[in-house]
Amino acid sequence: MKRHHPWLSWPQLREGPMQLACHLCDTLQAAPRLREGDGAYCCVCGEKLYRNRPHSLAHATGFSSAASSSWCWRTCFPS
After folding, report:
1. pTM (two decimals)
2. Helical H segments across the chain, by residue range
3. Which of 15, 63, 69, 72 is the most exposed place for a label (fewest CB within 10 A)?
4. In whole angstroms, what is the distance from residue 53 CA to residue 60 CA?
5. What is the pLDDT of residue 1?
């Protein structure tokens, strides 16, 4: 049974080949599987297509919750 994890980094690669279009030159090319922190670049213009950023949603959620708790603390107890 396969599970769908929406918090995984983009693009979520499936079993079959996946293709991406470059947003700068519109070249259609195959999306390679990337290791953590690696990026994929267009073979024609060299523009960055995407980057594998593991746990990016977890980092953003942590920073947001820290900022909101700090804001609440400063609002409830002004100096």
Report:
1. 0.50
2. 56-76
3. 15
4. 12
5. 44
Residue 79 to residue 30: CA distance in whole angstroms: 57
Q: What is the CA 19 to chain-centroid distance, rounded? A: 17
Contact 34, 52 (CB under 8 A): yes
Q: How far apart are CA 29 and CA 18, in angstroms?
A: 9
Q: How far is CA 59 from CA 18, 31, 49, 72, in A?
A: 27, 25, 22, 20
Cβ distance 25 to 41 under 8 Å? no
Token representation of residue 39: 């990026």
Task: With beta carbons less than 8 A apart as the criterion, state whether 21 and 47 touch.
Answer: no
Q: How confident is the model at residue 9 (pLDDT cuts 50, 70, 90)?
A: low
